[in-house]
Structure formats: structure tokens, C-alpha cells
Design a protein that fits this description.
CATH topology of the largest domain: Rossmann fold
Number of strands: 11
Structural class: alpha/beta
Oligomer: single chain
Strand order of the largest sheet: 3-8-7-4-5-6
Order of helices and strands: EHEEHEHEHEHEHEHEHEHEH
Largest sheet: 6 strands, mixed
Length: 250
């Protein structure tokens, strides 16, 4: 018989992250004694088209590049890796530490990061630093809202660039969802995809832990009753949030 030791001892945690991104979170859950249930309902792929290539030719015309996800960073730099584009004089902003860390690994040394790791805080911070004549490039996913563009339209010119697309993964074993003691959602799209395919009434009593306010709102709107969110929006804090819940601290 297996013996699980740790604050999540024996708790089955559904991990909805894409396969290629799930390993760090799975390891964190295992370190705390939990049982990660891999359920990669989200599939992410890079986007390349004539429009993006045309825009990237004029990359030097943007004073700022703003990122709201690690995926945005990764797929943007994948796009420009074979180009002669120079980012020497470009200013960068990132929604949080993990996104900023991805930029740092790409050689970016100066990054504007808001005090609170969500889009609203990022917009407030940008408004204090962006000049009225400056242009901003916002690399994003196809399902990401235009919040940054809308909120900054009176401050600067914001151009959106879709660098990756998020789709629902096929051929999943849906019985896994019912086995879980807790569900982890890292994006609103994961919530939406799961809700479309599953009768939420059968699982909506399970505790759900969301990475941030947008994902939390999506889960609440889809009918989940116990929706939790950590104070800091990282995988580590999500695991700690689960620990708090199962130890009666929620």
C-alpha cells in the first residue's frame, strides 16, 4: 500500500496545464505528498503568418513591448529568432515575476513589473511610464482579451500581435476529472474548455484553485462553487493555497 507523506498527502490534484509546461507544477504537488492527475486540456501552438512577418519588419518603431504571459515571451522570441530585428532600445514590461524571468533568460535586463501580478496593475504601472507619443507592441494568444489595448488607447498606440493559439486538446480520459479532489486552472481557456465538454454539475462541488483573477472569474461564471485564488499568482502559491484549503485554513 502506498503511503503519502506531506501536507497534500494522498490528495489528487487535476493539472490542466499543457503537457510541455506541466512538469514543474506536477513536481511541486508530488513534493508535498499530493497525487498529480495530468489532464492537459489546453494545447498551445505558435502562430506565423504574413501579417506578423510584416509587423516584425517594423519592430524598431515600437518603444515598448508588453507581455502578459510566459507563452507570449516564448513564442514572440521564436518569431524573431531568424530576423535581423534589434531590440537594443526597446523597453519591456511583464505582468509578473515568472513572465519577467522568461524575458531575463532571453537577455533582457531592464523589465517593468507591476506591484501586483495582474493585467489591471500592469496597466496602471504602464500609464505612469509610457509617454503619449510612444508605441506599444503587445504579443498575445488568440484568446487573450484586448484589455491592455483598450485601457491604454488614450495613453499610447497599442498594436496587438497574436504569436500563439490556444486550442482544446482531444482524446482525453474524462473520468480523471471525477477522480480529482481538487482542480488547478492556469488559464480561463482551460476552464472554458473543460466546462464545454463536461457536465459541471457533477464536479462543481470540488474545490478549484485558479492562478489569477481572470481565471477565477471564468470558474465562477461556469458554476464552480468553491473557487480559490492565491495572493501571488504562481504555481508555488497555488500549491500552498491547496495546502491551506485541505488543512482547514481556507
Amino acid at each position: 500500500m502506498n503511503t503519502f507523506i506531506g501536507p497534500l498527502a494522498g490528495k489528487r490534484i487535476l493539472v490542466t496545464r499543457p503537457k510541455e509546461q506541466a512538469e514543474p507544477l506536477i513536481s511541486l504537488i508530488q513534493e508535498k505528498g499530493g497525487i498529480p492527475l495530468s489532464f492537459p486540456i489546453v494545447s498551445i501552438k505558435g502562430v506565423r503568418n504574413d501579417g506578423s512577418q510584416s509587423l516584425l519588419k517594423n519592430l524598431s518603431s515600437y518603444q515598448w513591448i508588453v507581455f502578459t504571459s510566459k507563452n507570449g515571451v516564448d513564442y514572440f522570441f521564436d518569431l524573431i529568432q531568424d530576423s535581423a530585428a534589434s531590440l537594443k532600445n526597446t523597453k519591456f514590461a511583464a505582468v509578473g515575476d515568472k513572465t519577467a524571468e522568461s524575458l531575463s533568460k532571453r537577455g533582457v535586463t531592464s523589465i517593468l513589473v507591476p506591484e501586483h501580478f495582474h493585467a489591471e496593475s500592469l496597466v496602471k504601472t504602464l500609464k505612469k511610464h509610457v509617454l503619449s507619443h510612444e508605441r506599444i507592441l503587445f504579443p498575445k494568444g488568440n484568446l487573450a482579451p484586448s484589455f491592455i489595448k483598450e485601457e491604454l488607447k488614450d495613453t499610447a498606440v497599442v498594436e496587438e500581435l497574436v504569436v500563439y493559439k490556444t486550442e482544446s486538446e482531444d482524446h482525453l480520459d474524462w473520468s480523471i476529472v471525477h477522480q480529482a479532489d481538487c482542480l488547478f486552472f492556469m488559464s480561463p481557456s482551460a476552464v472554458t474548455f473543460l466546462s464545454k465538454e463536461l457536465n459541471i454539475e457533477n464536479v462543481n462541488s470540488k474545490p478549484v484553485i485558479c492562478v489569477g483573477p481572470t481565471t477565477k472569474s471564468a470558474a465562477e461564471n461556469c458554476g464552480f462553487h468553491q473557487v480559490l485564488m492565491p495572493n501571488q499568482f504562481t504555481a508555488e502559491d497555488m500549491v500552498n493555497c491547496a495546502i491551506s484549503y485541505f488543512q482547514g485554513g481556507s
